[in-house]
Amino acid sequence: MNLDGARIYNEGVGLGHDCEEKIRHIVSAMKSVSPSSEVSMRFVKSGHTYEGLLWGKANNIPIGVYNRGPSVSHVLDTLLRKVKKECLRIWKLNKGQIKPKEINQGHGYSPMAMTG
Questions:
Q1: Alpha-carbon distance values, 35 to 5, 16, 23, 57 (Å)
Q2: Which of left, alpha, beta for 17 (phi over 0: left; psi -120 to 50: alpha)?
Q3: Contacts 24+ apart (CB under 8 A), 32-35
């Protein structure tokens, strides 16, 4: 299944309309950091517990989040919270790597032009 650019693998798990909205929120959080981000999710039901695994890349930085809970909605809420936390970390990391433009302190000429 593909939803807003996210590959979703649901093994024995039914995703309702509310779950799709939460997945869209997760994808938009990832895309806010990097428009070319990759997102994949897998949902599995084992007994009475649902498990969710999210993996992908934002700005070529890998992201991986796992959670399990009593419902898919609960798992998606926790995944969204953790993804937002990871996206904030990536945003801060990239913000520190941006270098300000070097401003020429001279008067429009090269300092080497004065040497002769």
A1: 11, 26, 16, 11
A2: alpha
A3: 32/87, 33/58, 33/59, 33/87, 33/90, 33/91, 33/94, 34/58, 34/59, 34/90
Q: How far apart are CA 76 and CA 82, in angstroms?
A: 10
* pTM confidence score: 0.73
Single-letter amino acid, residue 91:
W
Which residue's structure tokens are 């930085």?
A: 61
| Residue 58 one-letter amino acid | A
Give the tens place of pLDDT for each residue, 34-57: 777 788 999 999 889 999 999 988
Please name the residue that has the structure tokens 């695994």.
Answer: 53
Edge-first strand listing for the sheet containing 6-11: 2-3, 6-11, 38-46, 49-58, 61-69
